[in-house]
Write a structure and sequence with these properties.
2 copies of one chain form a homodimer. Chain A is α+β, with helices and mostly antiparallel strands. The first copy, chain A, is built from 11 helices and 11 strands. Chains A, B: InterPro entries: Mal/L-sulf/L-lact_DH-like_ah, Mal/L-sulf/L-lact_DH-like_NADP, Mal/L-sulfo/L-lacto_DH-like_sf, Malate/L-lactate_DH-like.
């Protein structure tokens, strides 16, 4: 796959966002978040989303010119309306707001409604870490892909949850960024492409039995109204009710609390109305800031020093893999498939935007 | 198994706590929490803990006469020192504090250090619901039982997480109460007792391979220094790194933030120093309180109405099973094994406490 410098990818994203009429300062932030997501190796959530965003614009569901509005604000809380624009820059503002409130009162909670896709949740959790704080971010998802424990069809989204905390080493924060499903759709797609059997528990059929043929699984996920991705845990025997419960927790925080829609209750013609939830906690209100970061380091260093089950596969902590990929990609570039580059060329042509790839 | 009325169980717990020198108002609350836990069917965390508490007292590690102290307090935050007493009544106070702060500022975060076992985390999350708020509770655990993804030996605890939210029906709150491991030790013990093979992924050996022989698994968990319970997900192929990451999130909130010990860094002679974390959010700061409860009901009712994979096993939501068990036990009593009743008789004799079972 051809590799592109991060700056080139950023420039390309910016040119498309500008052509879509996004305000320059918002477009800068959005491009920055998207490139960072690609640098971390989360390929499904960065520049590869542009074709999906174009489809949303064409369907009249995404308003790239909209302003976000802070509808309500208190000492520790705020409510943001994203105006049906992309979620990236809205969420950067929301997290900055939560961070400022946590600086004053120890805690900040900000909810966002009427939003859209925002890339990877981890980016926003890390904003808290940049000021020495703890960040927790969740989001609803508009697509019904995950089957509840004991259920027969997809009704929940992959409802992500990200949690970040500073360690004593500023370059190595703790960063957990996960969907509450066992895996994302994209992983099944890759196994289908490679004709590799799936681990039993990634995808379930309408009788809650694991589907291990990756072709059958991927075609079921795309075309069938039964079965779906499993909640974290995989099967009921392996406690998928916990992953399912976490998905509902995310739905309650980013959906019910934020005032955003629950996907199964949304009509196809309704706006996506994705909701996000931001929590920031300032450790200085609970003890010494440096002591907290040192304690986080003690925890993660203890784990990294654990004897691994196989000598060539060390015990990692959340954030380690993404940090390695980021260093590699800053050096060697971001790999983009020819198919994706072709789609982006089409978007540029369609919008009369400069093509840079 | 013989069944005992909840009032009898409460009276028995109270008589032991009083003999241990616990202040009457604390003992009342502790007994109430423990009986409620037994009523919900969480048998491993209620009255059956008395023998363990006796061992902690005998080892000089549990101070049942200690007072809790609020060491620091702000508009949205507080830091509590549990004084090495049992965690139950300390946590009830901590959650009441968080609830009061959330009522004023929209959010309350209270941490607890120098605490002990507190039973089931869900009880405390529900305290927020009783005043129409959202509650999130996590706790560290002193025993190393869970092996990190790719690791070869137990280093983490089962680090529980509970989340509760009110629904439109006051008797049916959403209540998720889970360990971040696939299952708790107790479930392996039951399979060992029944000579039933374990689902592959509950217990891993030192090479990160599933152990399915329940006798081998249970004896490994009790006697060996390798392998252990798996984090939620089960195996690395089924994304156990997510359960592992959640266990670390709990450790950071209830341990590093609260200023409590990380079990692997504790010497056997050190106090247990368990830490807890409480978050309460008042939905009235983000919209209408009734609308929020109605949205939660819409979510859970949608799921309960989903067609199940097998007709006789309906789709449930977190809290449903415990509610059913509670109704049964309020009617028919709490089952206690003769072995446990014998142990409690011994405790009563040893402490000259009245025996009521």
């Amino acid at each position: 796959m051809k590799q592109y410098a991060a700056d080139t990818v950023r420039k390309q994203i910016l040119s498309v966002l500008a052509a879509w009429g996004m305000a320059p300062e918002r477009a800068e932030i959005t491009a920055e978040v998207m490139v960072d997501t690609d640098l971390l190796g989360i390929d499904s959530h960065g520049i590869s989303m542009l074709p999906m965003y174009q489809r949303l614009i064409d369907a009249g569901k995404l308003d790239t010119g909209a302003e976000m509005v802070i509808e309500r604000e208190g000492a520790s809380t705020a409510v943001v309306n994203g105006g049906h624009n992309l979620g990236h820059s809205t969420m950067v503002t929301a997290m900055q707001l939560a961070t400022a409130k946590a600086r004053e009162t120890g805690v900040g909670v900000v909810t966002v409604k009427r939003s859209h896709h925002f890339g990877a949740a981890g980016y926003y959790a890390r904003i808290a870490v940049d000021s020495g704080q703890i960040g927790l971010v969740t989001s609803t998802t508009p697509t019904k892909t995950v089957v509840p424990t004991r259920g027969s069809r997809p009704v929940l989204g992959t409802n992500p949850l990200a949690f970040a905390a500073p360690s004593a080493n500023a370059d190595e924060p703790f960063l957990l960024d996960m969907s509450t499903s066992t895996v994302a759709m994209n992983k099944v797609k890759v196994y289908d492409y490679l004709s590799k059997p799936l681990p039993a528990g990634w995808v379930l059929d309408g009788l809650a039995q694991p589907v291990t043929d990756s072709h059958a699984a991927y075609s079921q996920l795309r075309e069938q109204q039964h079965g779906g991705l499993s909640p974290l845990g995989g099967t009921e025997a392996l406690s998928s009710h916990k992953g399912y419960g976490l998905a509902l927790m995310v739905q309650i925080l980013a959906g019910a609390l934020a005032g955003a829609t629950f996907a199964p209750l949304r009509e196809p013609s309704d706006p996506n109305d994705i909701g996000h939830f931001c929590l920031v906690i300032d450790p200085a209100f609970f003890g010494d800031r440096e002591q907290f970061a040192a304690s986080v380091s003690q925890i993660v260093d203890t784990l990294r020093a654990e004897p691994p089950a196989s000598p060539d596969r060390p015990v990692l902590v959340p954030g380690d893999i993404e940090r390695t990929v980021r260093a590699e990609r800053l050096e060697g570039g971001i790999p983009l498939s020819d198919a994706l580059v072709g789609q982006i060329r089409d978007i540029c042509t369609h919008n009369e935007a400069p093509f840079h790839l």
